[in-house]
Queue: 2 jobs
Job 1
Amino acid sequence: MLGTPGSIAGTVYGTIVVLGAVTAGSEVAHGIWRLAAIVDSTVLVLWIAHVYAHGTGEAIERGRRLDGAELFSVAHRELAIALAAVGPTAALVLGGLGVVKGSTALWLAVAVGLATLAVQGARYAALEGLGGLATAMSIGLNLAFGLVIVALKVFVAH
């Protein structure tokens, strides 16, 4: 969720993907475990796609295939996308285990995603040395992306 300075973009991207998957899959009749599988598989597929695309791009730039260490470096650099699913998935697992109701787990997963976006906005602002207003705008922009997805979830559910 926090990561390195270079992981902010991947975490934001991954979190938006997670929120979209939670929203899109929230009406699945097969339950909270199915939703967790949908979220995780969606993020995993997009992470693999990013690794493939960036690896291909780097190979073209270098004029040769990447070796194993170089491909591993690309995969590691893009890992924040996949790791963004950990917190929301943990919330869904709590629902699957019966620790909380399924609907509570769903909203907890969304809340974790929104909190992640807020933290990443604050991290970006701190790394850039932004002042108070610009920091608030950075956080607000990240939250706006997440809240649009939440609004879509509410709209679709009703």
Job 2
Amino acid sequence: MMDKFSYLGNADISSVEDFYKQYLSDPNSVDPGWQKFFEGFEFARSNFEEKGEVPQSLKNEFNVINLINAYRNRGHLFTHTNPVRDRRKYSPTLDIENFGLVQEDMETVFQAGSQLGMGPSKLKDIVAVLKQTYCGSIGAEYMYIRTPDIIEWLQQKMESSRNTPDFKIEEKKAILNKLNQAVVFENFLHTKFVGQKRFSLEGAETLIPALDTVLEKGSELGIEDFVIGMSHRGRLNVLANILHKTYKDIFTEFEGRGTSDSLFDGDVKYHMGYSSDLKTEKGKKIHLSLTPNPSHLEAVDPVVEGIARAKIDTVHNHNYDKVTPILIHGDAAIAGQGIVYEVIQMSQLPGFKTGGTIHLVVNNQVGFTTNYYDGRSSTYCTDVAKVVLSPVFHVNGDDVEALVFITKLAMEFRQKFHRDVFIDILCYRKYGHNEGDEPRFTQPLLYKLIASHPNPREIYTQKLLAQGDIEADLAKEMEKNFKDMLQEKLEESKQLEKANITSFLEGAWANVKMAGKDDFDKSPDTAVDEKTFLSIANKTVELPKDKKFFNKTEKLFKDRKAMIDGNSYDWAMGELMAYATLMNEGFPVRFTGQDVERGTFSHRHAVVKLEDSEDEYTPLNNFSAKQAKLEIYNSLLSEYAVLGFEYGYALATPNTLPIWEAQFGDFFNGAQIIIDQFISSAEYKWRRMNGLVMLLPHGYEGQGPEHSSARIERFLQMCADNNMQVIDCTTPANQFHALRRQLHRPFRKPLIAFTPKSLLRHPRCVSKLEDFTKGGFKEVLDDETANAKQVNKVVFCTGKVYYDLLDQKEKDKVTDVALVRLEQLYPLPLKQLKNIIAKYSQAKDWLWVQEEPENMGAWSYILRCFREVNLKVIARHESATPATGYSKIHQQQQQQIIDRVFEKVLVKNN
């Protein structure tokens, strides 16, 4: 028997006697609702005071209350939400006998009915309402939420309506119409494109009316912008019947024709993105965006959130009511992919929140061939929602009215509380993973049931006919008209020679062009006027006199002021001035990553704390009344989700400088999927530019294999078709110009910037004022001290190793070696390199020197792409790990590289 009273909100009360005793001793110590309740049992007072006993009638009231709360807590376990098979059995059940009640009590009137808004009611009626509300086609999980107001709101919404739809006839016809479109569209594709992969929605067609409800109800509540992310299942149906991509265009893609755009490699039809402007049934204007996605399930989730946040920040003036992200998951993916957890953990963080995401789960109870009981340990695939205390609604996917009803409730919840909400649509997959797959190999019993199961439209049609809501011919007429229209569009598509590249987020990018090959020959002028530069610099190193800062903070800013006065700017000053000067020109800067406000290596201090306080001050946001803002946030300890979020943010903001920094460059591979599937390839799969900057601290300083290498070789292996830029700068000014260059070109490309660690404080890694106020980014830095006529050996290198080489060269007073820095690795600046070759035409030896092992770093790429001279390599020996973990061995290896360059040991030929 369940006899705990946790629902009373007092953990010390475990019995009716204790609670009643508390009320009698001090009525005001209990909730007013309970005071009123106990007043109805005044007759029990004398008996309790004399004998210490509570009459059984009062105990039974509490037993009924306990029963009510059990339905609220556990009713979802006993629902009729599975359309094709029986649910698993759970115990204890909700039978009244488990609550100290007996069948004879069913005719007894209980005051506890007031808890459900019924007033005093017979137990049988209370149980009937509870079953109707919590154990029908909808199961609700919400009692774990720790905010009483939210629980009360959800209870009121569900219990007042009994979770039972009451739609008007016109609403029912509209639902049937969307369901008809979903079902007929899939049937049409199945018969016209036999054997082609389309990852059909069959078995889950009620998703389309649900999405339509999200848009219609959402627009009524003030939402103007919806950003959708989903994988392949049902995507074509969503494109056609929600975003209104033309059926003709979709059919053309089935023909597999190429496009007229030579810069567009393309992708399969169920990965493409699309945007559209629509009017709802009530005349509301809305914008929809379906984000392009790879086959990596759930990888698109953070991208969607980033796009949504960008729109909130830049288009809707930080109004979370205007933009809603919608994520459509599969049951196996939401349970199995860790990125879901990372994204959900971002949902309430200041730098990443989007005002609440609508999560729709197409729960077809199987993942490819894997049964649900092999796909998760949790009861539900949606149990990750409980991490952030989001409500979950489990709905029978065959009951379209229940689904539409709960979707409306979910939209109201989102707009009121700005939190995520999950709708778990229990459905099935009619065919295998794709249409050519045989599901009976792995789920023979399930697919025997599915084979004879009517589709949701047939079920709903029969329901409406039985209720007398529609005429018998209406459904047939709907089907015929829609099918005839599809056939007409199919015939039109066959006349097209090329597929149309459909738009996605086109509006924000109207004035940004796609880059051509010649655009990379020379960087633009990104210099800043000297007077402007000095004015901004001086203002950003001033701390307010009325605020008390930590002594070390004040010293740090005095040191920065001394840099200005001494005309010697270190890395941090060069970097911060890049942001400040862009902001002065009206370009916002968004910067996230782990510990970025201070910087992993305590160099940036873009945000400083006040002494003995959590208050903070951002100098770069206080140098001008007209400047754009720096939005800089320390992120949660995630690479995958945060990089994906920033990529999405950059997709929607071509005139913002979006930056993600790895704590150490080595850690970027936690986000490898975002790099592989989006950053390096999206422009050529989906024709979408992106100006994201990745800052990856890189350099060999004896910190071991996990804190030395940002894997230059991996990025260079992905480079082709000018898809991104890869730099490894050696001066603050060149990094300054590289960052400014991002927004001073007429196109956008991702920038992979390998950044220093020890060089942050290296006395020679500094720049002068004129380096910032003249020219632009230099792809190659020549040896200014070399006399070309005396040079016999030219050393090409990149990054920190240059300073090691320079120290040795000057120490030994070497005059016949030129040290040439390759600041931009990709696109390879061949014109500039050829000029270097021509200058040192008398040289006999040409070396590539790197501190990475020979099988890593840039060497393999240089060997393949830079063939104008016969290069020899000096590097660490090839290795399975990037670096040794022993500091003395590191020092020996580093010195060997230097010694080999200056011929203190032999150089290896290649």
